[in-house]
């Protein structure tokens, strides 16, 4: 049952609101009572055509579910963009798995050279510490007091050695991250190659079917 509230000829040129009241009766009027706004309503023109739908207000549980669903959709869209950009970059930079492996070897080679340089410097620092310690031990053996400058030099060198150790550890973490990244590139590129091969086979099969249909004397 539809109860139409006619409030004058001016209403013909004014948008109307359609909602369901507490008696489950559909009502059309110039406004929606505040107690019914949360239940949702429709905005219609003077011909009864729906212009806009205002949905009902969600419960706390429904809103929580809607927010979670929205987050999932946003994450899925972001992942789609990430994979698309990744695929495009791989196809632009490489033409084969061997290309990726060669790039990985170059990148890792540079990092390993840096580690080698740091380790070489560390060995030099340790040698200097050992020299100062030997000098200090000899002075103590002769009953002489080890000078502050020498002790300070040993302390400074040991601090530099500790810094070198941290730098080596950081470079090793970087090497592992680069190795993992290139391995991911290889695995993704293999998927792309499989897809390209699949599409190539499908196209070949379709062409074969078309040629068979074209040359079939019974058709």
From TrEMBL:
- UniProt keywords, alphabetically: Coiled coil
Report which residue ranges the record marks as coiled coil. 58-89, 115-145
Q: Which domain of life is it from?
A: Bacteria
Q: How is this protein named in the record?
A: DUF4124 domain-containing protein
Q: Whose protein is this, by species?
A: Candidatus Seongchinamella marina
């Amino acid at each position: 049952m539809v109860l139409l509230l006619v409030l004058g000829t001016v209403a013909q040129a004014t948008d109307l609101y359609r909602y369901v009241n507490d008696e489950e009766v559909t009502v059309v009027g110039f406004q929606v009572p505040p107690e019914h706004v949360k239940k949702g309503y429709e905005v219609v023109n003077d011909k009864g055509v729906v212009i806009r739908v205002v949905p009902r207000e969600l419960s706390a549980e429904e809103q929580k579910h809607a927010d979670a669903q929205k987050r999932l959709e946003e994450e899925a869209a972001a992942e789609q963009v990430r994979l698309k950009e990744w695929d495009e970059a791989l196809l632009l930079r490489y033409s084969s798995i061997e290309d990726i492996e060669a790039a990985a070897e170059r990148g890792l080679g540079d990092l390993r050279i840096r580690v080698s340089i740091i380790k070489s410097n560390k060995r030099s620092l340790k040698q200097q510490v050992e020299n100062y310690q030997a000098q200090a031990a000899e002075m103590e053996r002769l009953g002489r007091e080890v000078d502050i400058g020498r002790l300070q030099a040993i302390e400074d060198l040991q601090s530099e050695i500790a810094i070198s150790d941290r730098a080596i550890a950081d470079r090793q973490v970087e090497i592992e991250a680069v190795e993992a990244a290139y391995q991911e590139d290889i695995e993704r590129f293999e998927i792309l190659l499989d897809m390209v091969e699949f599409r190539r086979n499908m196209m070949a099969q379709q062409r074969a079917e078309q040629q068979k249909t074209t040359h079939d004397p019974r058709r």
